[in-house]
Amino acid sequence: MLIVFYGPDGSGKSTLIEGLRQKIPSHELYHFAPILIPRRPQLLSKQKRVEAGRPYGASAWPTSLSFIKLVYYILDFLAFRVLVLFKRLSRRAPKVYIFDRYFLDFKYDKERNRLSLPDGVVSLCYKMFIPKPDLEFYLVGDPSTISSRKNEITIEEASKLVENYKAGATQELGLLVNSTERSIDECGSDIFDQVCEFK
Fold first, then answer.
1. Less Cβ crowding at N or C end of the chain, within 10 Å?
2. Looking at the domain assignment, is residue 50 inside a domain?
3. Handedness of CA 27, 139, 38, 66 (dihedral sign)
4. Who contacts 115 (Cβ-Cβ below 8 Å, separation ≥6)?
């Protein structure tokens, strides 16, 4: 079972994921990508690094390097697909794989990922190459509350991200979770119920 969490920083992803992990005995957690191949290849090492504490503190890479980065991550996810198959054959596969962010974050949060590619390119690559989740949770909420939780994100940035994730949930038939209107415990309980129902 593959479970994906999307949402801006400050929406409660880490807390909700940790709560879910405590209730699922057999699982593996990944952050954004499997990281089966080394990150930050040499050809990108000279690019400007993101300003400390500011995920939106650097300009986007040019289109050519953005595409190379996208392909690099595609290869990582393809390697992950092979790894899952190998674990299943060897009967060592966990029951659940959990991702904190996933491939479509390249479309929902371009500024953070510093990509300058059309949404259609990201969507096509996702459709063709990336393993599809069984459940997708999209964490949204009040932008001012999200910004106050993560001071490095402005209210304007939080507002844009919330709208992007809401649109993504609609397009991908994901499950919206408003983590600012209700308590984390309530949201966590609903998420666990959805996981149990899917099983």
1. C
2. no
3. positive
4. 60, 61, 66, 69, 70, 106, 122
Domain count, the chain: 1
Answer yes or no: is 51 within a domain.
no
Q: Rounded to an integer, what distance in angstroms lies between the CA atom of residue 121 and that of residue 98?
A: 25
pLDDT for 102-119, tens place per residue? 999 999 999 888 889 999
Please report how the helices 63-89 and 119-129 are oriented relative to each other, as an axis angle in degrees rounded to 10: 20
Classify residue 31: in a domain, yes or no: yes
What CATH number is attached to the domain comprising 13? 3.40.50.300
* pLDDT (tens digit per residue) in 40-70: 554 444 444 444 455 666 778 899 999 999 9
**CA distance linking residue 109 with residue 157, whole number of Å:** 10
Taking the CA atoms of residue 160, residue 162, residue 166 and residue 169 in that order, the dihedral angle to the nearest 10 degrees is 110
Q: Round to whole Å and give the CA distance between 114 and 92.
A: 36
* pTM (predicted TM-score): 0.89
Q: Is residue 149 part of a domain?
A: yes
- Low-confidence stretches of the chain (pLDDT < 50) are 42-52
Q: Which two tokens stand for residue 87?
A: 């674990």
Query: What is the domain range of residue 18?
Result: 2-44+58-198
